[in-house]
Write a structure and sequence with these properties.
Shape: globular
Distance between the termini: 35 Å
Largest sheet: 8 strands, mixed
Number of helices: 11
Radius of gyration: 21 Å
Number of strands: 20
Strand order of the largest sheet: 3-2-1-4-15-18-19-20
Structural class: alpha/beta
Oligomer: single chain
CATH superfamily of the largest domain: Metal-dependent hydrolases
CATH class of the largest domain: Alpha Beta
Bound molecules: (4S)-2,6-dioxohexahydropyrimidine-4-carboxylic acid, zinc ion
CATH architecture of the largest domain: Alpha-Beta Barrel
Length: 450
């Protein structure tokens, strides 16, 4: 039996029975508004007139943009271990409000997700909540200690069907261990995602190494600490026959290395976060730890390079790195604060503001970088699919002209650490639909199933 003979995922929460009619939406923001009919969680008609009284449920899309449900390859839902800051239920609600129908939750929980039983409990909780498919990411090394590989095969074959492994939050430092991980992952066709940071160069570092950190007296985290691991892992992927995914690319040099590696045909993919596409280390001046994140906010030239890279495909996708933290870990000295920012509920609005509003890209681009490519990279069936008859109804509706203001306190997340507090955005997710179930409507999230 090979890995491809196994079912693609564990048992999914059931599709919503009955007929859902979505009126007045523009698929990918193109053409005249159409109606979409969904039956038992599957799209059965696009663009035909349906009498509303024949449907069990009706959504008036208000002329909004219809996208495939968004997929986030990188979130931290903190369960098990830090349920005071986020849970599968609150994180799923935040995901539904942000337009997501699938997320991958990282392994740096307590205990670490390094065994099937822990991954399975996360998977089942996500399915019972029923607001978003929550895919557990297995750790690459036991306890995130960087010494011994975990049992990728057992996790891949568990009920959780783990398809991605990462020590995110930490880098796998040992090149020989990383080589073995790549060889092992290749045989199972699972994805390895690397948090690129040479820890020997970032001891005590809390901010981007540059003029701002120097002036403020903050210890710097140099670009080379990221880039040296990007190039190392690209070469390992080239020589040892499996793909590698680069988490939260943050520097201009990483972009250059990715461009080089892709031109060689190396099987490498990469993500960028909304905060690295918009914010710089100028933010540090207030010493407000809401701006502390790992890798750190960098300089304008990095932001510009990352934007160009996402536009030309050098960076494949947007991932939020949604990282909730409680006030005791954020409202304290910068040095002692934990790194991380909320992302799920602001991501779509930020990408629309940076790329769609100024005319740099269209909604097809948003569908590609926030849904289709992440589903392709993770080989996730049923997500990131075309809006077409016969496809599962995993969908997101966006009102591109609804101005709203970010308030951490109003979010579904249990934590409030958003660096976008008080900022206005013009695009808002109005509805999210998971297998025909309306998981979010105008900011109100459906009741969890259990
Ligand atoms: O800022 C970050 N926060 N970066 C990471 O790599 C980990 C994450 C977390 O777990 O809080
Ligand atoms: Zn990370």
């Amino acid at each position: 039996m090979t890995s491809s003979d196994y079912p693609a995922t564990g048992e999914l929460s059931p599709a919503e029975p009955g007929a859902l009619l979505i009126t007045n939406v523009r698929p990918y923001g193109e053409g005249e508004p159409v109606s979409i009919l969904v039956e038992d969680g599957v799209i059965v008609s696009v663009d035909s007139a349906w009498p509303e009284d024949e449907a069990d449920r009706v959504i008036d899309g208000g002329g909004g943009v219809l996208l495939p449900g968004l997929v986030d390859m990188h979130v931290h839902l903190r369960e098990p271990g830090r349920e005071d800051t986020e849970t599968i239920a609150t994180g799923s609600a935040a995901a539904a409000r942000g337009g997501f129908t699938a997320v991958f939750t990282m392994a740096n929980t307590s205990p670490v997700m390094d065994q099937p039983v822990i991954a399975e409990s996360v998977w089942y909780k996500g399915q019972h909540t029923g607001l978003c498919d929550v895919h557990p990411v297995g750790s690459i090394t036991r306890g995130l200690e960087g010494r011994e590989l975990t049992e990728f095969g057992m996790m891949a074959r568990s009920e959780a069907r783990v398809r991605m492994f990462s020590d995110d939050g930490r880098c796998v430092d040992d090149p020989q261990l990383m080589r073995r991980a790549i060889e092992y992952a290749g045989g199972l066709d699972v994805l390895l995602a690397q948090h690129c940071e040479d820890h020997r160069m970032t001891v005590g570092s809390v901010a981007h190494e540059g003029g701002n950190a120097a002036r403020l007296g903050l210890r710097g985290w140099p670009r080379v600490a990221e880039e040296s691991i990007v190039v190392r892992d690209a070469l390992l992927a080239r020589d040892y026959g499996n793909r590698i995914h680069i988490c939260h690319a943050s520097t201009e040099g990483t972009v250059e290395l990715l461009r080089w590696a892709k031109a060689q045909g190396i099987p490498i993919t990469a993500e960028v976060t909304p905060h690295h596409l918009t914010l710089t280390d100028e933010r540090l001046a207030t010493y407000d730890a809401v701006n502390k994140v790992n890798p750190p906010l960098r300089e304008n030239r990095d932001v510009q390079a990352l934007r160009e890279a996402l536009l030309d495909g050098t960076v494949d996708i947007v991932a939020t790195d949604h990282a909730p933290h409680g006030s005791e870990d954020k409202c304290c000295e910068f040095e002692n604060a934990k790194p991380g920012m909320l992302g799920l509920e602001t991501s779509l609005a930020i990408i629309a503001a940076v790329f769609v509003a100024p005319g740099l890209a269209d909604w097809r681009f948003v569908a590609r970088v926030m849904s289709e490519r992440p589903a392709e990279i993770t080989r996730l069936p049923g997500q990131g699919r075309p809006i077409a008859v016969g496809e599962p109804a995993n969908l997101t509706i966006v009102d591109p002209g609804r101005t709203w203001t970010v308030h951490g306190a109003d979010m579904a997340s249990k934590s409030t650490n958003t660096p976008f507090e008080g900022m206005d955005f013009d695009a808002r997710v109005t509805h999210t639909i998971l297998r025909g179930r309306i998981t979010c409507a105008d900011g109100t999230v459906a009741e969890p199933r259990a």
